[in-house]
Specification:
The complex is a heterodimer of chains A (242) and B (392).
Chain A lengths: L1 E6 L10 H10 L1 E9 L5 H10 L12 E10 L2 E10 L3 H6 L10 E7 L3 H5 L1 H11 L7 E6 L11 H10 L4 E3 L8 H18 L23 H15 L5
Parallel strand pairs in A: 2-4, 2-5, 5-6, 6-7
Antiparallel strand pairs in A: 1-3, 3-4
Helix pairs in contact in A: 7-8
Chain B lengths: L2 H7 L1 H4 L6 H5 L2 H6 L6 H13 L5 H9 L7 H11 L13 H5 L4 H9 L11 H21 L9 H12 L1 H13 L11 H7 L2 H8 L1 H10 L7 H6 L8 H13 L4 H12 L1 H5 L5 H9 L7 H14 L2 H30 L25 H8 L3 H6 L6
Helix pairs in contact in B: 6-17, 7-17, 9-10, 10-11, 10-12, 11-12, 14-15, 14-18, 14-22, 18-21, 22-23
Classes of the chains: A alpha/beta (242), B mainly alpha (392).
C-alpha cells in the first residue's frame, strides 16, 4: 500500500528528474495533518514511526514545529500526507503553532495513556483548535499513545472512548515504540488518508478547506477503520487496554 | 577606546578592510570571499598575552571571540566567558535546597526535556557520567529559575544550558546563564512568546535588504519564521550536532549584540538563496528545506557575513520594517479569521485592534522587545555593535 516515504530531513524529494516530479505532483493530492497534544506524549515518535517506519533512537523536545511527510497509495491514488508535529509546551502553542492551523485537513490529538493529566488536558486542546480552525467538520482523531507500558496505564479505555464519542471522534490506542504495533500506527494514518480521499473526490484539498463536504463523511466507511475498530474491540475483550 | 576605534581594529582579524565604510558598501558575495583563515597558535599567544594583562582588556577579548576561530579552546572559554559576561566566579551563590529547586512551577517540564536531551551529550559518553550531568543540568536550570521569579522556562533553554554545563561545569555555568538570562535571553523568557516572535520579524527585513527576490519568494510561500525559532532561542544548540561548532557560535553571540543570532539566521538563509529559489514555492517544502541546517555550511564565513549584515543594516534601521511585517501578518490573520467566521456563520465582533503588538488580544499595550527598543532609540547603531554592550 505504501509506495514512497520521505522525511524532510533527507533529500528524497529531489531524487527524481524534475519533469517527472512535476508531472507526478500535478496528479498527487496533498493533505495537511496537524498533530497536537501535551509535551512528551509521543507526537514526534508517532509521526516519525509513520514517516520513517521506525522508532527514533533519541527524540528531543520539539521546538516550534517539525514537518514530516509520506506518500501513500489509497485505492490506486497517490496521496501525500504532510504531518506537522508541534511543540507541546503551552507557550509555543499559544503563539507559534497557530500559524500551522491554516488550511489543515485533519487533526490528530495525542495523549499519553500512562499520564492522566495529558488526557485531562484534551478538552483544552480541542477548544483551542476550534478557536483557530472554526470548521469543525475537519476529520479529527484521538490517539492514546504508549500503550506498550502496560503496568503504568492510567487512562482507562472506556473513559477515553466515552470522551472520544462525546466529541464524535474515533479513538485509537497504540504505541509508536512497540514494533509489533508498527502496522497499527500505519493503519491509523491510513484511516485518515481514506477519509480525506473519499471526502473530496473532485476538488483539490486547498480549495475545499472550508467547505462543508465533510458532513458526508462517515467514520465507518473505510476498511482500515473497520479493521481497527474490530481489533480494538477484540483487545478490549482480552482485558487489555491497548 | 571608542566603539569606532574598536570596529576599526576588526580588519586585523577578518582580513583587509573588513568593516571599513568601503567594505560595507560591497555586496554580500564579496564579503563572503574575505579570508576567514587564521593562525591558531598565533591567535592563542595573543589571547594569552591579553589575559596576562592587568586589568584585562575586555574589548580585545570580545574581538578574539568574534574573529575566525573564536576563543579556540574550552580551557580559554572557561577563563574568558566569565570576563566577557562580567561574572565573578569566586562569589557564586550556593545551590538552594532540593525542595526549593523541585518545587518550582517549571520543574516537571524541565525534567521532561532534560531526560530527552541525550543528543546533546558527546557520543560515546559513559552512561553514568551522562546521567550525572543530566542531574546537574536540571539543577542548573532550576537554580536560575528559582533565582528570578519573573523568568519563565522555555523548551530550548535546556539546549543553551547544556552547552555551558559541558564547557565550564555546573557552578560557573549557573553564574553565566544567570547573567545571560537577564540580558541576551531575557526576551525569550517572558510568560508568553510575543517578544520572541517580534525578534523573528527582523529576519525578513534583513534578508530583503540583501536579496529582495528571496524575501518575496519566502513571503509568497507563506513559510513564516518558525523554521528559525529553534536557531534563535537555543543559539543553534538544538540544530547543530557538533559541540565544537556550537561553542564557536556561543563565543560570537556572547561578545555581540543580543540580536546577532537573527543576523546569523539571515546569513544562513541568504547563503542558501539559490537552493530556496529553486524549490517549490510552498510553505511545507520551504519549511522542510530551511528548518534543517546542513552541517557542512561554511560557518566562519557565515559569522563574518552576519557581522557584515549587522553593520550594513543595524536593528534601528529595521525596526519599522519589522513592525510592518508584523502588521501584515496580523491583517492577514484577521482576514482569514473573518473568512472562517463567514463559513461557520459564527457572529463574533471583530474588535478593532489599535495597537501594533497585541498578539494575544488581551494586552492593549505597545510591546517592544527590550533589545529592539534599545537599538531603535539609539540612532548610532553601529556603536551599539560592540560598545553598548557593557556588563554591570
Amino acid at each position: 500500500m505504501v509506495s514512497k516515504m520521505s522525511d524532510s530531513s533527507n533529500s528524497d524529494l529531489h531524487e527524481e528528474p524534475e519533469s517527472f516530479v512535476i508531472e507526478k505532483q500535478a496528479q498527487r493530492r496533498i493533505f495537511k495533518i496537524i498533530v497536537i497534544g501535551d509535551s512528551n506524549v509521543g507526537k514526534t515518535c508517532l509521526t516519525y514511526r509513520f514517516c520513517s517506519s521506525k522508532f527514533p533512537d533519541k527524540t528531543e523536545a520539539t521546538i516550534g514545529v517539525d514537518f514530516r511527510e509520506r506518500t501513500v497509495n489509497v485505492e490506486g491514488e497517490q496521496i501525500k500526507l504532510q504531518l506537522w508535529d508541534t511543540a507541546g509546551q503551552e507557550r509555543f502553542r499559544k503563539s507559534m503553532v497557530q500559524h500551522y492551523y491554516r488550511n489543515v485537513h485533519a487533526i490528530v490529538f495525542v495523549y499519553d495513556v500512562t499520564k492522566m493529566s495529558s488526557f485531562e488536558n484534551m478538552p483544552g486542546w480541542i477548544g483551542e483548535c476550534d478557536q483557530h480552525n472554526l470548521n469543525r467538520d475537519i476529520p479529527r482523531i484521538l490517539v492514546g499513545n504508549k500503550c506498550d507500558e502496560k503496568d503504568k496505564i492510567a487512562v482507562n479505555t472506556n473513559l477515553a472512548q466515552k470522551f472520544a464519542d462525546s466529541y464524535n471522534m474515533p479513538l485509537f490506542e497504540t504505541s509508536a515504540k512497540d514494533d509489533e504495533k508498527a502496522n497499527h500506527v500505519d493503519a491509523i494514518f491510513m484511516t485518515l488518508a481514506h477519509k480525506l480521499k473519499n471526502a473530496k473526490p473532485m476538488m483539490p484539498p486547498y480549495l475545499t478547506n472550508h467547505s462543508r463536504n465533510f458532513n458526508t463523511v462517515q467514520l465507518g466507511d473505510s476498511l482500515q477503520k473497520r479493521g481497527l475498530e474490530r481489533a480494538r474491540a477484540e483487545e478490549r475483550n482480552d482485558s487489555c487496554s491497548c | 577606546m571608542t566603539a569606532i576605534e574598536e570596529i576599526s581594529m576588526i580588519p586585523d582579524w577578518f582580513g583587509n578592510d573588513f568593516y571599513s565604510d568601503e567594505a560595507n558598501k560591497n555586496n554580500s558575495r564579496q564579503s563572503l570571499k574575505r579570508k576567514t583563515v587564521f593562525n591558531k597558535s598565533e591567535k592563542w599567544q595573543k589571547i594569552e598575552k591579553t589575559l596576562d594583562q592587568d586589568p584585562v582588556d575586555v574589548s580585545s577579548l570580545k574581538q578574539f571571540a568574534i574573529s575566525p576561530g573564536g576563543l579556540l579552546d574550552d580551557e580559554l572559554r572557561k577563563e574568558i566567558w566569565p570576563i566577557l559576561l562580567d561574572v565573578d566566579i569566586d562569589n557564586i551563590p550556593p545551590k538552594p535546597g532540593i525542595e526549593i529547586l523541585h518545587g518550582h512551577r517549571d520543574y516537571n517540564q524541565v525534567l521532561l526535556d532534560v531526560n530527552r536531551s541525550l543528543k546533546r551529550f558527546p557520543p560515546g559518553m559513559d552512561e553514568n557520567i551522562r546521567l550525572g550531568l543530566q542531574d546537574q543540568l536540571v539543577d542548573l536550570i532550576m537554580r536560575v529559575l528559582v533565582n528570578h521569579e519573573e523568568l519563565h522556562y522555555y523548551q530550548g533553554y535546556h539546549d543553551i544550558c547544556v552547552t555551558f554545563l559541558l564547557v565550564v561545569g555546573e557552578d560557573v555555568a549557573f553564574a553565566l546563564v544567570d547573567k545571560l538570562s537577564l540580558n541576551h535571553l531575557r526576551d525569550f523568557m517572558d510568560a508568553n512568546m510575543d517578544r520572541t516572535k517580534h525578534i523573528l520579524n527582523y529576519l525578513y527585513p534583513i534578508v530583503g535588504k540583501s536579496n529582495p527576490e528571496l524575501r518575496e519568494f519566502m513571503e509568497r510561500s507563506e513559510v513564516g519564521t518558525v523554521f528559525s525559532l529553534s536557531w534563535l532561542i537555543t543559539w543553534y544548540g538544538h540544530v547543530l550536532n557538533d559541540l565544537r561548532q556550537i561553542v564557536r557560535f556561543y563565543d560570537f553571540f556572547i561578545a555581540c549584540h543580543p540580536l546577532m543570532p537573527i543576523y546569523l539566521a539571515a546569513a544562513i538563509v541568504l547563503h542558501r538563496a539559490d537552493e530556496i529559489l529553486a524549490s517549490e514555492c510552498d510553505m511545507c517544502i520551504v519549511h522542510g528545506l530551511l528548518s534543517k541546517i546542513p552541517q557542512d555550511l561554511p560557518f566562519e564565513q557565515l559569522i563574518s557575513k552576519a557581522g557584515d549584515l549587522y553593520l550594513q543594516y543595524p536593528p534601528s534601521d529595521l525596526a519599522y520594517d519589522a513592525i510592518l511585517n508584523f502588521q501584515m501578518t496580523q491583517s492577514y490573520t484577521k482576514a482569514r479569521s473573518r473568512n472562517r467566521q463567514k463559513f461557520t456563520r459564527k457572529k463574533k465582533t471583530d474588535k478593532k485592534r489599535w495597537f501594533v503588538f497585541n498578539q494575544d488580544g488581551k494586552s492593549g499595550f505597545l510591546k517592544f522587545t527590550f533589545w529592539t527598543v534599545t537599538t531603535a532609540v539609539v540612532s548610532a547603531a553601529v556603536i551599539a555593535y560592540l560598545r553598548s554592550w557593557e556588563w554591570g
